[in-house]
Amino acid sequence: MRRRYPNLLVAAAFLLSWLFAIAGAARAADVDAGIARIQKAYESIKDLKGSFVQKSLIRDLDKTETYRGAFYIKPPLKMKWIYSGTNGQSLTIRDDTVLIYKKTENQAYRSKFDRQTYGQTPVALLSGFGNIREEFAVSGSGDSLILKPKKPMGNVTFIKITLSAEGFPIRGIEIHDSYSNVISVAISGVKINTGLKDSFFDLTLPKGVNVFEQ
């Protein structure tokens, strides 16, 4: 059985860290103009935080899992997602390290990411932003943008971004992979440039936590 679903949590976190860059592209009729505005918006944002509701469709299990919580992003490579609920966990990304901490299980999972690990996490969205057209074939339809990787990005086949009409311009995102798994994330309560500290993204763990390297 191809059980890729643990990595879907990571994928959503990575992708959202890029999506704030699209702020200027809401409702852009011309895709080229929208991309140019994405680049400009990205340059003006120092940090981002808000709330999310994530639904992960696990095709192999014919199951949809729902998660809620808060996200914090400081580009280019500092992120934290804190999942609420009885089985809450945190996911922290700093530079080239991903750390998933499951407090109730007293366990943590640590891994590295680069171009070779895009099958688990669409981290290409964080690498440079020098020219989005070099990374993706971009199309638009109504209030959506469709991004298809031009080069292999692990299992990711395409990314759908749904734009909002007012306020923060991203209403939702979807990640589709070659296993027919789908992550959908709705975000709200977004605040920009609140002064998040680097220390908030430290990869420290409480003593006694069992750490598994992946």
Topology:
Layout: H1 6-19, H2 31-44, E1 48-58, E2 63-74, E3 78-83, E4 90-94, E5 97-102, E6 107-112, H3 132-135, E7 136-141, E8 144-149, E9 156-163, E10 170-177, E11 182-192, E12 210-213
Gist of the model:
By secondary structure, this protein is mostly beta strands.
Molecular structure report:
- A hairpin with a 2-residue loop joins β7 and β8.
- Residues 23-29 and 118-130 have low confidence and may be disordered.
- With 214 residues, the protein is mainly beta.
- The chain has 3 helices and 12 strands, in the order ααββββββαββββββ.
- It has a single domain (6-213), classed as outer membrane lipoprotein receptor (LolB), chain A, CATH 2.50.20.
- The longest helix has 14 residues, at 6-19.
- It has helices at 6-19, 31-44, 132-135; strands at residues 48-58, 63-74, 78-83, 90-94, 97-102, 107-112, 136-141, 144-149, 156-163, 170-177, 182-192, 210-213.
Query: What is the CA-based Rg, rounded?
Result: 17 Å
Give the CATH level 1 class.
Answer: Mainly Beta
Morphology: globular
Could you report the average pLDDT, rounded to the nearest whole number?
76
**How is the largest sheet built, in terms of strand order?**
7-8-9-10-11-1-2-3-4-5-6-12
**Which structural class do you get from the secondary structure elements?**
mainly beta
